[in-house]
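Hi U.,

Before I forget, here's the chain from the pilot set. I'm dumping it here mostly so it's searchable later in email.
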Amino acid sequence: MLVVTGATGQLGRLVVRHLLQRVPADQIAVLVRDPARAAHPAAHGAEIRTADHDIPDSLSGAFSAGDRVLLISGNEFGRRLAQHTAVISAARTAGVGLLAYTGILGGAATRFVADDHHATEKAIEDSGLPYTFLRNGWYTENYTGQLPGVLASGAVIGTADPDSRIATATRDDYAEAAAAVLAGEDHENTTYELSGDTAWSLREYAAEISRQSGTQVVYQQLAVDDYRKNLADAGLPEAMLSVFTDTEDAIARGELAGTSGDLSRLIGHPTTPLAATITAALNA
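Structure:
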C-alpha cells in the first residue's frame, strides 16, 4: 500500500489527488487523526487508517510490512520532532518498504526552521529503513497568500536585499513530486533538493504583481525588528515569526535560490511559473 500521513493537510490532500491519478484507489491508504476529514479519499475508495502522532501507541498497526509511506512533516514547533519519531518507530517495527519524508531544502543546519528536519532525517537514517528525502524549497503560496494585504498596502515587505533571489514552486508541484516518488521506483536512499526551475527576486515579484493587478506595488526592505512587528500586527502567530525571519536570512544568503532541476525531473514537466501563481491568486 501507498500510505500518506497528514493526508487531510494542505500538502497531503494534494498528494492523495495525484496518487489517485497514478494508481488504483485500493492501493492507497491515508493515515489521519479524524476520519471525518478524509471524505475525499474515502469517496474514491482509499483505505482510511486512524492514528494520532501525539499518541505513539495509536500508531501500532498503522503500517504493514512492505508499505511505502510518506511522512509529511508536522507544523507544530516544539512537538513535531517527537511526532516524527513516533511515526518512524512504528514504520520500523512494521518493516515498511520505503519511508519518504518532506523536509526542507538543503542549507545551514542552524536555521530555526531546519533543525527538526535535520534531526528527523538523522532518525530515519538510523532506523535502517529505505528512505527518500524530499527537501522542499519555499512555497510560492507563502507569498501569494499575502496578496490582499500587499495590494492594500502597496508593498511587499521583507528583510532581504531586493535583488536576493528565491526559486519557489507551488504546493501542488511539491505534492506531485511526492506522489511520483511514492508510486514510482528506484528512489530508495536518495535525497532530492526540490525547488522551482527559475529563481526570482523580491523586486521582480513586486513588479509582476503591479503588472497583473494594475496596482503599483514596490518591495520594501525592513529592519528585522520592524519586519517581526509588521508580521505580528498582521496576526502571524508568535511561533511563526522566527520561521519567517530565518527564511529571510536564508534568502539573503542565497540558500533558497538553487535550481537543481530535481523537482521538474520528478514531475516530468516544468514547475509552475511565478506569474501563473500570481494570476491564480488574483483570480481567487
